[in-house]
Protein backbone atom coordinates (compact mmCIF):
# COMPACT_ATOMS: atom_id res chain seq x y z
CA UNK A 1 0.00 0.00 0.00
CA UNK A 2 1.37 3.45 -0.92
CA UNK A 3 1.50 6.11 1.72
CA UNK A 4 0.89 9.81 1.10
CA UNK A 5 3.66 12.03 2.39
CA UNK A 6 2.38 15.20 4.01
CA UNK A 7 3.93 18.31 2.53
CA UNK A 8 4.06 22.02 3.30
CA UNK A 9 3.62 24.63 0.56
CA UNK A 10 5.81 27.70 0.43
CA UNK A 11 5.45 30.69 -1.88
CA UNK A 12 8.82 32.45 -1.82
CA UNK A 13 9.56 35.88 -3.27
CA UNK A 14 12.90 35.64 -5.03
CA UNK A 15 15.28 38.10 -6.68
CA UNK A 16 18.39 37.00 -8.57
CA UNK A 17 20.38 40.24 -8.28
CA UNK A 18 19.94 43.61 -6.52
CA UNK A 19 18.90 45.14 -9.87
CA UNK A 20 16.61 42.39 -11.22
CA UNK A 21 12.85 42.21 -10.74
CA UNK A 22 11.43 40.04 -7.95
CA UNK A 23 9.36 36.97 -8.78
CA UNK A 24 7.55 34.25 -6.83
CA UNK A 25 8.34 30.56 -6.83
CA UNK A 26 6.35 27.81 -5.13
CA UNK A 27 7.88 24.85 -3.31
CA UNK A 28 6.55 21.82 -1.48
CA UNK A 29 8.70 20.31 1.25
CA UNK A 30 8.10 17.15 3.30
CA UNK A 31 6.46 17.92 6.62
CA UNK A 32 8.21 17.11 9.87
CA UNK A 33 6.77 17.72 13.35
CA UNK A 34 8.22 20.82 14.96
CA UNK A 35 9.78 22.20 11.77
CA UNK A 36 10.30 25.93 11.35
CA UNK A 37 10.76 28.09 8.27
CA UNK A 38 14.55 27.72 8.44
CA UNK A 39 14.34 23.91 8.35
CA UNK A 40 12.05 24.20 5.32
CA UNK A 41 14.56 26.45 3.56
CA UNK A 42 17.28 23.94 4.37
CA UNK A 43 15.17 21.21 2.76
CA UNK A 44 14.80 23.35 -0.37
CA UNK A 45 18.56 23.87 -0.36
CA UNK A 46 19.12 20.10 -0.25
CA UNK A 47 16.59 19.49 -3.02
CA UNK A 48 16.11 22.66 -5.11
CA UNK A 49 13.06 21.58 -7.09
CA UNK A 50 9.94 23.76 -7.30
CA UNK A 51 6.33 22.60 -7.12
CA UNK A 52 6.23 22.13 -10.89
CA UNK A 53 9.07 19.62 -10.72
CA UNK A 54 11.58 21.95 -12.32
CA UNK A 55 15.11 22.28 -11.01
CA UNK A 56 15.99 25.73 -9.73
CA UNK A 57 18.71 27.55 -7.85
CA UNK A 58 18.63 27.05 -4.06
CA UNK A 59 16.96 29.89 -2.17
CA UNK A 60 19.43 32.25 -0.48
CA UNK A 61 18.80 33.41 3.09
CA UNK A 62 20.73 34.32 6.23
CA UNK A 63 20.71 32.61 9.62
CA UNK A 64 23.12 31.94 12.42
CA UNK A 65 22.08 31.16 16.00
CA UNK A 66 18.70 29.51 15.21
CA UNK A 67 17.42 30.54 18.66
CA UNK A 68 16.16 34.11 18.13
CA UNK A 69 19.30 35.82 19.42
CA UNK A 70 21.40 36.91 16.42
CA UNK A 71 18.62 38.57 14.38
CA UNK A 72 20.06 37.36 11.06
CA UNK A 73 17.03 35.42 9.78
CA UNK A 74 14.56 38.31 9.68
CA UNK A 75 12.10 38.06 6.81
CA UNK A 76 8.42 38.68 6.07
CA UNK A 77 6.42 35.52 6.76
CA UNK A 78 2.71 35.52 5.88
CA UNK A 79 2.84 39.31 5.70
CA UNK A 80 4.50 39.81 9.09
CA UNK A 81 8.18 40.68 9.67
CA UNK A 82 9.66 38.19 12.10
CA UNK A 83 12.41 35.68 12.78
CA UNK A 84 12.29 32.59 10.57
CA UNK A 85 13.88 30.41 13.25
CA UNK A 86 10.95 31.12 15.61
CA UNK A 87 8.27 30.73 12.93
CA UNK A 88 6.86 27.23 13.46
CA UNK A 89 5.16 25.70 10.43
CA UNK A 90 2.37 24.20 12.56
CA UNK A 91 1.29 27.71 13.57
CA UNK A 92 1.32 29.22 10.07
CA UNK A 93 -1.47 29.30 7.51
CA UNK A 94 -0.61 27.62 4.22
CA UNK A 95 0.61 28.28 1.66
CA UNK A 96 3.30 30.00 3.69
CA UNK A 97 4.48 33.17 1.94
CA UNK A 98 8.07 34.17 2.56
CA UNK A 99 9.58 37.43 1.31
CA UNK A 100 12.55 39.69 2.10
CA UNK A 101 11.98 42.75 4.28
CA UNK A 102 11.11 45.61 1.92
CA UNK A 103 12.68 48.45 3.91
CA UNK A 104 16.18 47.22 3.09
CA UNK A 105 17.84 46.67 -0.31
CA UNK A 106 17.71 43.06 -1.47
CA UNK A 107 21.04 41.37 -2.15
CA UNK A 108 19.54 38.11 -3.39
CA UNK A 109 16.30 36.28 -2.59
CA UNK A 110 15.76 36.67 1.18
CA UNK A 111 19.18 38.20 1.87
CA UNK A 112 18.98 41.93 2.60
CA UNK A 113 21.48 44.72 3.26
CA UNK A 114 20.94 46.14 6.77
CA UNK A 115 23.50 48.93 6.37
CA UNK A 116 20.80 51.53 7.06
CA UNK A 117 20.47 50.24 10.62
CA UNK A 118 24.21 50.11 11.23
CA UNK A 119 24.66 53.67 9.92
CA UNK A 120 21.97 54.79 12.37
CA UNK A 121 23.78 53.11 15.27
CA UNK A 122 27.05 54.77 14.23
CA UNK A 123 25.30 58.13 14.04
CA UNK A 124 24.11 57.93 17.65
CA UNK A 125 27.38 56.35 18.87
CA UNK A 126 25.63 53.26 20.20
CA UNK A 127 28.62 52.05 22.17
CA UNK A 128 30.73 53.12 25.14
CA UNK A 129 34.00 54.66 23.92
CA UNK A 130 36.88 53.83 26.26
CA UNK A 131 40.47 54.88 25.58
CA UNK A 132 43.12 52.20 25.96
CA UNK A 133 42.99 48.46 26.41
CA UNK A 134 44.19 48.36 30.02
CA UNK A 135 42.02 47.17 32.88
CA UNK A 136 40.07 50.07 34.36
CA UNK A 137 38.63 47.96 37.15
CA UNK A 138 34.94 47.66 37.99
CA UNK A 139 32.80 50.57 36.87
CA UNK A 140 30.20 52.44 38.91
CA UNK A 141 27.26 50.39 40.11
CA UNK A 142 23.86 51.01 38.53
CA UNK A 143 20.71 51.45 40.53
CA UNK A 144 18.64 48.26 40.34
CA UNK A 145 15.67 49.94 38.65
CA UNK A 146 17.93 51.45 36.00
CA UNK A 147 19.75 48.12 35.55
CA UNK A 148 16.47 46.30 34.93
CA UNK A 149 15.49 48.81 32.23
CA UNK A 150 18.96 48.59 30.67
CA UNK A 151 18.70 44.82 30.51
CA UNK A 152 15.40 45.00 28.61
CA UNK A 153 16.86 47.49 26.14
CA UNK A 154 20.03 45.43 25.68
CA UNK A 155 18.02 42.54 24.23
CA UNK A 156 18.03 44.29 20.84
CA UNK A 157 19.59 42.00 18.21
CA UNK A 158 19.55 44.53 15.33
CA UNK A 159 17.19 42.23 13.46
CA UNK A 160 15.47 45.10 11.63
CA UNK A 161 11.92 43.90 12.33
CA UNK A 162 10.94 47.16 14.08
CA UNK A 163 12.40 49.17 11.20
CA UNK A 164 10.48 47.07 8.67
CA UNK A 165 7.23 47.51 10.63
CA UNK A 166 7.64 51.30 10.99
CA UNK A 167 5.73 53.20 8.26
CA UNK A 168 8.04 56.19 8.71
CA UNK A 169 11.13 54.25 7.60
CA UNK A 170 11.13 53.99 3.82
CA UNK A 171 13.09 54.98 0.72
CA UNK A 172 11.62 58.50 0.85
CA UNK A 173 12.87 59.32 4.35
CA UNK A 174 16.09 59.13 6.34
CA UNK A 175 14.32 58.53 9.67
CA UNK A 176 16.79 56.93 12.04
CA UNK A 177 14.26 54.34 13.23
CA UNK A 178 13.12 53.00 16.61
CA UNK A 179 16.07 50.66 17.26
CA UNK A 180 18.68 53.43 17.25
CA UNK A 181 16.51 55.69 19.43
CA UNK A 182 16.15 52.93 22.01
CA UNK A 183 19.89 52.32 21.96
CA UNK A 184 20.48 55.99 22.80
CA UNK A 185 18.40 55.45 25.92
CA UNK A 186 20.40 52.33 26.77
CA UNK A 187 23.85 53.89 26.46
CA UNK A 188 22.82 57.21 28.01
CA UNK A 189 21.67 55.33 31.10
CA UNK A 190 25.06 53.63 31.54
CA UNK A 191 27.29 55.27 34.20
CA UNK A 192 30.21 55.44 31.75
CA UNK A 193 28.20 55.81 28.55
CA UNK A 194 26.45 58.94 29.80
CA UNK A 195 29.65 60.94 29.28
CA UNK A 196 28.55 61.08 25.60
CA UNK A 197 24.91 61.70 26.46
CA UNK A 198 24.64 65.15 24.87
CA UNK A 199 26.36 63.95 21.70
CA UNK A 200 23.79 61.20 21.25
CA UNK A 201 20.88 63.52 21.98
CA UNK A 202 22.22 66.02 19.46
CA UNK A 203 22.25 63.26 16.84
CA UNK A 204 18.58 62.52 17.59
CA UNK A 205 17.74 66.21 17.20
CA UNK A 206 18.91 66.35 13.58
CA UNK A 207 16.48 66.29 10.64
CA UNK A 208 16.47 62.49 10.33
CA UNK A 209 16.19 61.96 14.08
CA UNK A 210 13.43 61.43 16.58
CA UNK A 211 11.03 63.95 15.01
CA UNK A 212 10.47 61.44 12.20
CA UNK A 213 8.51 59.14 14.53
CA UNK A 214 4.78 59.14 13.73
CA UNK A 215 3.79 57.20 16.87
CA UNK A 216 2.22 54.33 14.92
CA UNK A 217 3.50 51.95 17.64
CA UNK A 218 4.07 49.21 15.06
CA UNK A 219 7.61 48.83 16.36
CA UNK A 220 6.71 47.78 19.88
CA UNK A 221 4.03 45.40 18.61
CA UNK A 222 6.41 43.67 16.21
CA UNK A 223 9.62 43.48 18.28
CA UNK A 224 10.42 39.78 18.74
CA UNK A 225 12.20 40.50 22.05
CA UNK A 226 9.37 42.56 23.54
CA UNK A 227 11.55 45.66 23.96
CA UNK A 228 9.52 48.69 25.16
CA UNK A 229 10.48 50.78 22.13
CA UNK A 230 7.69 53.36 22.39
CA UNK A 231 8.56 53.97 26.04
CA UNK A 232 12.15 54.62 24.96
CA UNK A 233 10.99 56.99 22.22
CA UNK A 234 8.83 58.91 24.70
CA UNK A 235 11.74 59.16 27.13
CA UNK A 236 14.10 60.37 24.39
CA UNK A 237 11.49 62.92 23.30
CA UNK A 238 11.60 64.32 26.82
CA UNK A 239 15.40 64.27 26.95
CA UNK A 240 15.86 65.94 23.56
CA UNK A 241 13.37 68.66 24.54
CA UNK A 242 15.35 69.37 27.71
CA UNK A 243 18.55 69.37 25.68
CA UNK A 244 17.03 71.84 23.19
CA UNK A 245 16.16 74.32 25.96
CA UNK A 246 19.63 74.02 27.46
CA UNK A 247 21.18 74.80 24.08
CA UNK A 248 18.95 77.85 23.67
CA UNK A 249 19.83 79.16 27.10
CA UNK A 250 23.55 78.70 26.50
CA UNK A 251 23.51 80.86 23.35
Automatic annotation (TrEMBL):
The reply to whether Oxidoreductase figures as a keyword in the UniProt entry is: yes
Q: Which cofactor does it need?
A: [4Fe-4S] cluster; [3Fe-4S] cluster; [2Fe-2S] cluster
Family per record? Belongs to the succinate dehydrogenase/fumarate reductase iron-sulfur protein family.
User: Pfam families under this entry?
Assistant: Fer2_3 (PF13085), Fer4_8 (PF13183)
Gene3D superfamilies hit by this protein: 3.10.20.30, Alpha-helical ferredoxin
SUPFAM superfamilies, per this entry? 2Fe-2S ferredoxin-like, alpha-helical ferredoxin
UniProt name for this protein: succinate dehydrogenase
Report the EC code(s) recorded for this entry: 1.3.5.1
Enzyme kind, highest EC tier: oxidoreductase
- Tell me where on the tree of life, at the top rank, the source sits: Bacteria
**Which lineage is the organism of this entry classified under, starting from the top rank?**
Bacteria, Bacillati, Bacillota, Bacilli, Bacillales
